[in-house]
Amino acid sequence: MNELEELDLAIAFKNAVAPPMKFDQRDDNHNDFHDLVNMPRVDFVVELDNEVYFIELKDTNRPDAADLGGATFMKKIANGKVEQSLAEKYLYTFFFRWAESQLNKQVHYVCLITLEDPMVNILADDLATTLRHLLKSSKRWTRQPLASCQVHSLQSWAEAFPEWPIRRLSDAVVS
Amino acid sequence: MIEHLKLTNFMAFEEVHIQFSPRINVIIGENGCGKTQLLKAAYAMSCAGQKNYQDSSSSDLAEVESTLTYKLKGIFRPSKDKLGVLNHRGSKSNSVLESTFSSGQNLVASFSSRASQIKLNAKYPGVSAEGGVFIPTKEVMSFLDGFSNQESDRPTLERLFDMTYFDLIEKLLKPVDEVEEKAIWAFEKITNYIGGKFEIDPPKIHFRAGEYKAYKEKEKYEKNYFAAASEDAFSATMTAEGFRKVGVLQSLLEKNALGSGTNGPLFWDEPEANMNPKLMRMMVEVLFELSRSNQQIIVATHDYVLLKWFNLLVGKGDHVRFHVLHREPISKKLKLLSTEDYLEIDPNPISEAFRDLTVTHAKQNTGIKA
Questions:
Q1: Which sequence spans correspond to the domains of chain A?
Q2: Rounded CA separation B278/A92 (Å)
Q3: Does residue B52 register a pLDDT over 60?
Q4: Contact B212, B188 (CB under 8 A)
Q5: How far is CA B103 from its chain centroid?
Q6: Can you state the angle between helices B163-172 and B35-48, rounded to 10 degrees?
Q7: Partner of B28 at 20 to 30 A CA spacing, among A86, B151, B209, B235?
Q8: Contact B343 A135 (CB under 8 A)
Q9: What is the ipTM of this complex?
């Protein structure tokens, strides 16, 4: 089963054409170990037939004491630094995969943020604004660096990605 | 079709210059930034050369000056009915409204703070067939009875409503025409979404429930037919206010005031007022469809959902221009920024209101003082 876990959330990528990668792999015994420790990176990389998805999860309902309620992320929102942080994760992941010679498909960047829809919408706009130059297309480019930039709540994720159901590990099935 | 408008020393504006898209224009800005004033000024200028507007086909300069003065005062309702009150506060120069139209017309109207009448450029280009439709913020379907009733007191109505309401109601009270081919899709879309159509038979207005359906023998009949849900129609005031607002659009299509491809612009001030956000997608789809038939659309809005739908539903061949009115932080002067790229809208007061919500939520959850 193509399921990946990140803290309290697990996502099954049913239609992935290759085993989905936990890109933020911190276990140095693992083949996919990300060895540049302080380099920003997304949580998962998932390949479909013609596309690759960079996926970042931000869980503001984390029940664990280490970061209860996603406090670190919430502070970034409060301080106006969240778009820059999310944009960096995409950019560094892009360069890392390019350096691995693993970037042959068009890239979609998808963030899951467990906030209410109206709050997520504005983060989606702000992230797209931060990455807007990559969403455009230069006449000189032969490849599109960013096919789409999306930010979803749990509800909109369920509608947009029915093939990628989410469950909360500490709870029952979420969607 | 209005191509550009320049306002100098007029109302809130020291100087503002707006280049309109021939398709869809979305004006945004904080309260007090002059969105409605801009919309109304563009409407008044669009109407200035209109045949119907002058009550005659004359292009006599003095007559048009007199009518435009009457129109401008009726639309803006200056205190004590003094035209000069519309002059930009503190300005010693004349107010100038200048507009160009796709027909090649160029119209320049000016007046001083003491003037009682507008002066037009000496080379007044004559009568235009266009004009326009202005939909104000309040829904008007429920007022139609009162407006069209002979017993209603006109001076009282004029104290309550500016001239944009009278102009719109005049259009709504016209007899039904055959919906133009180009506007049928929009008309049927609205009808099926709100579950029926408004029927205006002055002074009464009814809502007839039903929907448009395709004939079983599609190859034989090209058009759809209206299947009424029952023989009885009920009072329009029993319909939801949001439906009545959309019903105005429906009725204007039925009277060929919109969507024929030769009409003047549709000016719509805050379409979102009293409208359920769920209706907005349908409404923006309808506006896009009308714009594809050369209907120029100019809306002013505060609403994030509406603004976002204009960004999300834009298709190949469509054109949307966003116009942002804002005050410069230091000089406090009103400025206008226009862009086709939603992500380039800066400042975006509508987004900022939502961001405030998100940041306050985040602060409350992290113990930072909100």
A1: 3-172
A2: 39
A3: no
A4: yes
A5: 20
A6: 60
A7: A86
A8: yes
A9: 0.79
